[in-house]
Amino acid sequence: MVKEIEKTGIPVVHICTVVPISLTVGANRIVPAVAIPHPLGNPNLDAKDEKKVRRSIIEKSLEALTTPVEEQTVFE
Amino acid sequence: MKLELGKIQIQDVVAGAEEKIEANILYINPETIVDIVLEDDRLAECSVEIAKPGESVRITPVKDVIEPRCKVDSSSGIFPGVINKVDTVGGGRTHVLKGCGVMTVGKIVGFQEGIVDMKGPGAELTPFSKLIEICLVLEPKEEIEPHQYEEAARFAGLKIADYLGRLGESIEPDEIVTYETLPLQEQLAQFPELPKVGYIYMLQTQGLLHDTYVYGTDAKHIVPTILYPTEIMDGAIVSGNCVSACDKNTTYHHLNNPVIEDLYQKHGKELNFIATIITNETVYLKDKQRSSDFVAKLSEFLGLDGVIISQEGFGNPDTDLIMNCKKLEEKGIKTVIVTDEYAGRDGASQSLADADKLADAVVTGGNANETVKLPKLDKVIGQLDYVDVIAGGFDGSLKEDGSIEVEIQAITGSTNELGFNQMSAKGV
């Protein structure tokens, strides 16, 4: 999906737990997610701390989306 | 560590009032079995049914299969840390009831339990159609949670395999096979001219009913460690997982791991089998990185020349597999990976979710997406109403005439990644 959307000229950020797979399939902008069963949150945290985690992933993704890249890049 | 495995060939299983093994026939008392199972207050009902090879019987949803075993003249028991006290196993003598299995069946726990046919095209895809299966058909109490039911079902199977195994303690086995691995320095010195080979045993530990236990501990919390291979033959590793039926390792698979068996066969002839390194398949990237780092580090520390790596399950564990392979190869340790494929029903898609050019020696257990038509069989042990929703099933899998069309993913053990099956692919 990442590659098909990018073919149309729209940049894509792949938020993904298993970064090596994302690299293998060819995503250009990768933001690591939390864990496979809960990529965008963490049920072990309380609501306030979890919101922080979620916000940081989104902010990092937006930053990645607007950053020019020359090669596959992981935004740690 | 040296283990004598005494094999008692069971040619028939007879239900009745007596409990004994005589002239290679196992006599079981279903009432006693039910009493033992229902000691667990999380289970509401249990019935015992026997299915034999060639009978027109379909068993589903199958959770685990366990081979009855017992320690002989020993203070320790099989499945240590789970149903017997924690104690190092793998030495001394163990008796095995070959030719039969205890199978846990009944209302589904997750969505990834399997089908075992005792006859027809489905039977050809599972090794369990060749055993006399002692099925425990379980019904949980209504109020319990799925993970509690999974544990109760797991314990039920292990307890009955232990109970029936003990009937063989004083029986003279038909055959005794001895397996021995020496402490590291002695093992290295025993066959100094032969290549030093290890086995990397990946265990499914993704949580949410995808777990494996080592001496009773949840393997998702371990860092990779070393076991004598014979410990595994005594039940040091048990399955607690509801991963896709085709490529989960049941407890039976762990007890009879063919990679270990074959490495022992070549031990002292073609190679020096040094150790088994167990590792996990976790859901956090940093855990995957740490575990694969440890696998590579331990292999280097042991001075291995080559390893066989087996996987369990599919999808993101493909990354654990490739990470292990890559890090070992980068240390100059040769690898062969044993896996299976999800290449689409036509076999044309990418087989693994991850890949690397260093993974250049692969054994496959087959394509789990292949479909198979299973004709109606006369008897069902368990229940058919989950066939459409188990992994490998799809809307309309269960036909009105009682036949089933499913991906072979739904058949227990069909694409096993230890090579405990017939299917493979050969290429250059």
Describe this structure in words.
- Chain B: This is Beta-aspartyl-peptidase.
- Chain B: InterPro entries: Asp/glu_Ase-like_sf, Gly/sarc/bet_Rdtase_B_asu/bsu, Gly_reductase_pB_sua/b.
- The complex is a heterodimer of chains A (76) and B (428).
- Chain A is α/β, with parallel strands linked by helices and 76 residues long.
- In chain A, 42% of the residues lie in helices and 13% in strands.
- Chain A has a 3-stranded parallel sheet, with helices on both faces.
- In chain A, helix 3 links the parallel strand 2 and strand 3.
- The longest helix of chain A is centred in the last third of the chain and has 19 residues.
- The radius of gyration of chain A is 13 Å and the shape is globular.
- The model of chain A has no long low-confidence stretch (mean pLDDT 94).
- Chain B contains 8 helices and 24 strands.
- In chain B, strand 14 and strand 15 form a beta hairpin.
- Chain B is globular and about 55 Å long.
- Classes of the chains: A alpha/beta (76), B alpha/beta (428).
- The interface between A and B is medium-sized, with 11 and 16 residues.
Shape of chain B: globular
Helix and strand content put the structural class of chain A at alpha/beta
Beta-strand proportion of chain B? 25-35%
- Overall strand count of chain B: 24
Morphology call of chain A: globular
Radius of gyration of chain B: 21 Å
- Give a count of the beta strands of chain A, DSSP E runs of length 2 or more: 3
Helix count from the secondary structure assignment of chain B: 8
InterPro entries (chain B): Asp/glu_Ase-like_sf (IPR036152), Gly/sarc/bet_Rdtase_B_asu/bsu (IPR016585), Gly_reductase_pB_sua/b (IPR015417)
GO molecular function, one term (chain B): oxidoreductase activity, acting on X-H and Y-H to form an X-Y bond, with a disulfide as acceptor
Organism (chain B): Vagococcus elongatus
Keywords (chain B): Pyruvate, Schiff base
